[in-house]
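Researcher: Please predict.
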Amino acid sequence: MNDSISLQLHDTQALAQIINANTTYCWWQRGGGKTGGGIGPHLEKLIRKMPRSQILLFSDTYDRLRNRVVPNILSFMETKMGMIEDVDFVRYKKPPDSFDKPYIKLDDYSNVITFSSGACLCLVSLKVEGSANAYNAQAAIGDEVKFCKEEQ
């Protein structure tokens, strides 16, 4: 990862990053940059400031996460943050021995993206009952939550 970068964020994205609230809801229009300019910079901050942590990334289905949400987030990490897959992060497989180890080691990485800091981004589908159980998460991020039932 680079030590410094320059990001082009629109005013609302920048405001969300500056305020850095514990809970943030982004009611932005379609294509408004929620995933890349909202979740991307926030997630980068979490994996840097909370190394070795577990961070939940949830939506209604694994399909939506794997095919729409995760590609957008990882594209941000690669193109804007300069991260390189298999060097700075691995997806859906056991991380290399050179990565810092998470505080709570996982046996199954099939729904996990691991960063070299040891932080784990754990995918959670609200359609699969109990898919978030037993994680010891320090943060949770939801995307495309308009498809999620609030009580879940």
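Model: The two ends are 35 Å apart (CA to CA).
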